[in-house]
Structures are given as C-alpha cells and as structure tokens.
Specification:
The protein is α/β, with parallel strands linked by helices. It has a single domain, classed as Response regulator (Rossmann fold, 3-Layer(aba) Sandwich). It contains four helices and five strands. The protein has a five-stranded parallel beta sheet with strand order 2-1-3-4-5, with helices on both faces. Helix 1 links the parallel strand 1 and strand 2. The N terminus and C terminus are likely disordered.
C-alpha cells in the first residue's frame, strides 16, 4: 500500500496516449504520487498543451504508436519546441524502437506496456528537474 507520505509533489506531467484506458491508468498512477497531470489523446493535442504558455510541463509520457500524428512525429515536434523537454516513451510493441527514434531525440527512456508503475514513477522523478 502506498502512503500519502510517499507522494512527491513534482510538477506537471503531460500524458499523451490514444488509448483511453492506458491514459487513465497512467494519469492515476502519476497523480497518486503527487504529480499534476495533463492528459490528452493525440500528439496534436499534446503540442497544443505545450504551446500554451500558461501550462508548465516538466515531462512528457508519450505513446509511440498513435493514429494521426505518430509518437515519432510528436517527439520531433516537441523537440522543436523545447529541445530539453524530458520525454518517456510508452510502447506496446518492441523495446527495440530505439532504432526508430529520430537522431534529434537524444537518449529517451522506453517503457514496455504493460509497465511497472514504480518504474514509471522512477523515470518521471528522474526527468523532473524539481525533484
């Protein structure tokens, strides 16, 4: 059982995933650990959040395989907005997507779905400059 004292208030995390159930579970996990979560169902919506100057996002949890704007396209667009944005990729496919990561991306942590909630929390904490 996770106690309230285990929570870490750590800033906003943007969750981008077209799968409603994955997005909901991911958001709940992050919220339970004290993160302010903004969740959206598409890469385009994620970019809109990042371009909104009123929203401060410290990390993005990004689904790799989405209809419309793919994870790779979204990642490139995020990097063009903020080259230092911390990004964690979620995938239900192969862990070897590193080959598909654009060179511009730099080192990106990749989590295989279904993922261990504590691994997600550790990665987000590690990417958050306020922790």
């Amino acid at each position: 059982m996770i106690e309230i004292s285990d929570r870490v208030a750590a800033g906003s995390v943007l969750v981008v995933d077209d799968d409603d159930s994955v997005r909901l579970v991911t958001s709940r996990i992050l919220t339970r650990f004290g993160f302010d979560v903004i969740d959206v169902a598409s890469g385009r919506a994620g970019l809109d959040v990042l371009q909104d100057s009123a929203r401060v996002v410290s990390a993005v949890v990004l689904d790799w395989s989405m209809p419309g704007m793919t994870g790779a396209e979204t990642l490139c667009a995020i990097r063009s907005l903020d080259e230092d944005m911390s990004i964690i990729v979620l995938t239900g496919w192969s862990l070897s997507i590193e080959e598909e990561l654009p060179e511009i991306a730099g080192p990106i942590p990749v989590l295989q779905k279904p993922f261990d909630p504590m691994e997600l929390i550790e990665l987000v904490r590690g990417t958050d400059p306020q922790t």
